[in-house]
């Protein structure tokens, strides 16, 4: 019941977010309407990283209390985080094609995010490859904690690597330097995608719990 | 018995995914007691021992050794127990004395060369002390494992088919060693198939069948024939 | 004190076994020689190109050798069925991690010295002036690689596809260390003083600290049955 309500709220928020991104947000001077993809591109990485923070915390809690429900939360947030990170990479590439002229560029942000994507995809692979489910949960928990702490190091090292070779990439400015007309739609879409992610996580945890029930 | 049990298992359950191995096991072993745990293959004897040895966690119920919970207080339990099971924990590339020194030091001891030699002498491995364990027979490797018990006598001994692979002399030595553990006020829980002289050491017999303790009786009260009959009866009931 | 003694006995055991069997060391030496030939064949006699990619090549060699060596961290325990014994030995399990890490550092140190010597001889590269700065970079980089590698080896010890999964998990996780070491080495070999790569050294030190702390705190959970 609660999940369904969450689903409806998320759906409404997403529609609002899309409307704002397409209609309300200002049209970018040089790039035109293709720049609007940013309203999907940027919030999706924020949501993904937020999901990974939840994964790391849930993993730490799981190692302490060994409750299967906590592990299911860690598992679900890993999956949803990877999903949204995939969206970020794909939209980054799609945005890059008309803007940079190429499907892929070793831009600092895109590269960093891709590495984090592989890191957490690895956690899902590890779960699948470990036969004993309890051991799988523990190993994935350790990897997730490691991965989450590594995120900052990855971004920092890749940043330094790129800025010595190329001019700064597209979105150097942080939120504070952004005009309100751009910031507001970004935040709205962040909220919308966040709700969507929460809905996915809730559904996924349900499915995982049902799978565990079926085995018992 | 007035003293608190050294091993206390309460309503213990363990499932591996869909497979329920232990359902509702309750058992207590007091200081100075030796309990023989009988049961057919797959009854869950090894699983029960593993839970008590903190190698795996139960899905239901509780297991405690010397008052410490095996799942939550595992380190305290490990200080008190010794497990004698199928694994021999022998590094093939190390000699007998090097193997012994490694495990003893890892357990926090500081054995002198004399102590190591003495322990090996007791299990009659002193002549091969400086020989790489690669060349050892299974029996010799098992004896090397027993030498660890000499260096660090445990309060609680968990045994899984402990006499397998031991020749007559080693068996006698080990039986005496087990009696000494009992005499010191330690506790023994021994899982075994055999209804032979392994049972001599046990003061109580417990039969594990159908995921539960089907019978828990003093050894003396039940003759060997009776045990055989009950064993067959309960294992048939379970299947 | 007991902690140090227990870590030491794990180091002692691994080095003793390695000295007798020489399995890992042989494999790594052979592997390094092989890499040398492959690099020579692909790069040819072009001196300028070689100098340009040397830092990357060097670290590629170290990392690939590291993957082979680090992946074997718990091979002995698996082969000799000693995993349970490690878990049941009373005391802080992180001492085992530290001991294993130390053994890996010794092994990797030996291989790195060998690779450096081979590069100097076969590619006629003069590492002399840069050596003073290279040593801390090597130390920090190797520590990062080994700290994570030892932990990941424990993570994948019971996985059937571990030869595949281990590098797949470790390589992306090592990106900060790889970038830091290659960039710092590049600058040092070009003659820059150590001070100019201070930020990379800081990053390496930070990565090392994070990986070590995670390793020490979480190893016991990976050891469980």
**What's the CATH H-level homologous superfamily of the domain at 7-88 and 155-238 in chain B?**
P-loop containing nucleotide triphosphate hydrolases
How many angstroms separate the termini of chain C?
27 Å
Quick one: how many beta strands of chain B? 10
The chain pair with the largest interface is:
A-C, 30 and 32 residues
Helical coverage of chain C, percent range: over 70%
Structural class of chain B: alpha/beta
Quaternary form: heterotrimer
Number of helices of chain C: 10
Helices and strands of chain C, in N-to-C order?
Answer: HHHHHHHHHH
What is the averaged pLDDT score of chain B? 88
Distance between the termini of chain B: 34 Å
User: Can you give the mean pLDDT of chain C?
Assistant: 90
Taking pLDDT < 50 over at least 5 consecutive residues as the criterion, the unreliable ranges of chain C are none
Count up the helices of chain B.
7
- Give the helix/strand class of chain C: mainly alpha
Tell me what you see in this structure.
With 216 residues, chain A is mostly helical. Chain A has helices spanning 2-24, 38-65, 68-100, 108-129, 133-163, 180-215. Chain B has 239 residues and is an alpha/beta fold. Helix content of chain B is 34%, strand content 26%. Chain B has helices spanning 45-52, 74-80, 96-106, 113-122, 138-151, 168-183, 224-238; strands at 7-16, 19-29, 34-38, 60-65, 68-69, 81-84, 156-160, 187-192, 204-209, 212-218. The relative contact order of chain B is 0.18. Chain C has one domain (2-223). Helices cover 82% and strands 0% of the residues of chain C. Chain C has helices spanning 2-21, 23-43, 47-71, 75-79, 83-88, 94-122, 131-156, 162-173, 175-189, 198-223. In chain C, helix 2 (23-43) packs antiparallel against helix 3 (47-71) and helix 9 runs antiparallel to helix 10 (198-223). Chains A and C meet through helix 4 and helix 5 of A and helix 7, helix 8, helix 9 and helix 10 of C.
């Amino acid at each position: 019941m609660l999940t369904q309500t969450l689903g409806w709220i998320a759906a409404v928020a997403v529609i609002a977010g899309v409307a704002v991104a397409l209609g309300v947000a200002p049209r970018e001077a040089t790039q035109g309407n293709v720049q609007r993809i940013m309203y999907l591109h940027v919030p999706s990485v924020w949501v993904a990283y937020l999901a990974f923070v939840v994964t790391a915390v849930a993993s730490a809690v799981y190692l302490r209390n060994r409750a299967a429900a906590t592990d299911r939360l860690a598992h679900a947030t890993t999956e949803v985080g990877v999903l949204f990170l995939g969206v970020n990479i794909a939209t980054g590439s799609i945005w890059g094609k008309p803007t940079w002229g190429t499907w892929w560029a070793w831009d600092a942000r895109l590269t960093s995010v891709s590495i984090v994507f592989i890191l957490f995809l690895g956690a899902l692979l590890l779960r699948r490859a470990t036969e004993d489910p309890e051991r799988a949960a523990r190993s994935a928990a350790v990897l997730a904690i490691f991965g989450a702490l590594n995120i900052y190091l990855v971004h920092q090292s890749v940043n330094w690597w790129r800025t010595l070779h190329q001019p700064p990439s597209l979105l150097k400015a942080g939120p504070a330097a952004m005009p309100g007309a751009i910031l507001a739609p970004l935040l709205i879409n962040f909220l919308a995608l966040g709700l969507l992610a929460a809905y996915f996580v809730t559904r996924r945890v349900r499915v995982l719990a049902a799978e565990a029930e079926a085995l018992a | 018995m007035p003293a608190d049990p050294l091993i206390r298992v309460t309503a213990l359950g363990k499932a591996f995914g869909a497979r329920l191995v232990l359902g509702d096991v309750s058992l207590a072993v007091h200081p100075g007691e030796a309990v023989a745990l009988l049961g057919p293959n797959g009854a869950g004897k090894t699983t029960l021992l593993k839970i008590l040895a903190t190698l795996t966690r139960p899905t239901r119920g509780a297991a405690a050794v010397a008052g410490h919970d095996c799942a939550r207080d595992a380190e305290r339990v490990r200080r008190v127990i010794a497990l004698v099971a199928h694994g021999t924990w022998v590094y093939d590339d190390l000699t007998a004395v090097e193997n012994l020194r490694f495990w003893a030091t890892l357990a926090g001891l500081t054995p002198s060369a004399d102590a190591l030699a003495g322990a090996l002498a007791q299990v009659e491995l002193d002549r091969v002390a400086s020989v790489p364990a690669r060349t050892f027979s299974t029996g010799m490797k098992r004896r090397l494992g027993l030498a660890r018990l000499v260096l660090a006598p445990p309060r609680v001994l968990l045994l899984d088919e402990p006499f397998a692979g031991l020749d007559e002399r080693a068996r006698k030595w080990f039986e005496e060693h087990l009696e000494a553990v009992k005499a010191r006020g330690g506790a023994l829980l021994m899982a075994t198939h055999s209804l032979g002289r392994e049972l001599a050491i046990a003061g109580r017999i417990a039969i594990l069948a159908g995921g539960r303790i089907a019978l828990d009786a003093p050894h003396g009260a039940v003759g060997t024939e009776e045990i055989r009959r009950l064993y067959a009866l309960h294992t048939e009931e379970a299947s | 004190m007991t902690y140090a003694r227990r870590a030491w006995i794990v180091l002692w055991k691994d080095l003793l076994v390695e000295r007798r069997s020489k399995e890992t060391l042989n494999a790594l030496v052979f592997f390094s020689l092989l890499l040398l030939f492959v690099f020579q064949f692909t790069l040819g006699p072009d001196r300028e190109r070689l100098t340009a990619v040397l830092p990357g090549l060097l670290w590629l060699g170290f990392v690939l050798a590291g993957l082979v060596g680090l992946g074997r961290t718990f091979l002995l325990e698996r082969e000799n069925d000693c995993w349970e014994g490690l878990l049941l030995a009373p005391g802080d399990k992180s001492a085992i991690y530290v001991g294993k890490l130390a053994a890996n550092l010794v092994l990797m140190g030996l291989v790195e010295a060998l690779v450096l010597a081979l590069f100097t001889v076969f590619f006629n590269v003069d590492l002399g002036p840069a050596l003073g700065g290279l040593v801390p970079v090597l130390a920090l980089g190797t520590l990062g690689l080994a700290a994570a590698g030892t932990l990941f080896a424990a993570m994948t010890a019971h996985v059937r596809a571990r030869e595949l999964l281990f590098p797949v998990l470790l390589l992306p996780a090592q990106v900060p260390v790889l970038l830091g070491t290659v960039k710092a080495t590049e600058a040092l070999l070009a003659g820059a003083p150590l001070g100019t790569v201070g930020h990379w050294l800081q990053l390496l030190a930070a990565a090392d600290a994070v990986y070590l702390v995670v390793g020490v705190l979480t190893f016991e959970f990976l050891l469980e049955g």
